[in-house]
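so i finally got all the pieces together for this one. its two components total, 271 residues if u count the protein bits. some of the lines might not be protein, just check the labels. i wanna see the whole assembly predicted at once instead of chain by chain like last time, that was a mess tbh
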Amino acid sequence: MEILGLFFEDFPLGKSGGSVGRTITSSDVTFFEEMSSWPEYSSAAGRLAPEMLVTMVSAGLMTRQGFYEGTLVGIIGNSWQYKAPVIVGDTLKLKYWVTQASLTKSKEKGIVVFKIITYNQRDETVAEGEIKTMMKTRGSSS
Amino acid sequence: MLETEERLFSERDLLLGILWEGDAQLHTNRPGMAKTPFGSTIVHGNSVTSMVLGQLLRVHFKSAEKIRIRELTVNYLAPVHVGDAVKGVFVLEESHKISDDSKMLRMNFEILKNQQTRVSQGSVSIEME
């Protein structure tokens, strides 16, 4: 596996960052609903993006940081609170910071937990989450 | 208890995660993944959750006019590969009225593959009108 990402040791508590923007299009929602069997819902403001699409776009904005490449063992959990609806045409960004970092028993891997805030073009928080990852350490053999 | 129909995961289903979450090698690098304990590329955990939750909403809550997921927690316990058949089992933990025409449900769930292996467990809060 090509290693281009960061290791467990590169994620001290409090390490933080942010993402670029990602506009949610009508096609995003159409394809997501078709592929996941998600029903279509609308509000007075417009067509709603499914909450799981918001989750996946947020996860994608984390992937685009580049630090998972070849060093992520897996996402082992996540939890989200959806604070406001996301409408087609909204542009999402996120900020993140490390809230937990601990080695596993073998010391070949470490658990890194990211706190995430996803917000829209009006700086309104639309979702707050935690992504729990398992990352390789520099001494990892695989 | 509510169950979703078993769904067989195909290569097409890998695209859901690839499109929105990105590659991250675990899902598209076959030779790389062959050297890991997973043995092969795996389906994004959020794709599995999306498909099971989507089916729950579509089949079991089709009479609701509006539905919003308020909270979701998922812990991943085992990988899903192309060829695995997956279903969700939901148990209602709490239900309360928010207004005359809306209520909040909180359910715990498990997602199983091939009728026996638990691949994830979690909880979801759903507001519906």
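The first strand of chain B starts at residue 2 and ends at 3.
The CA atoms of residues 29 and 41 of chain B lie 7 Å apart.
anyway lmk what u think
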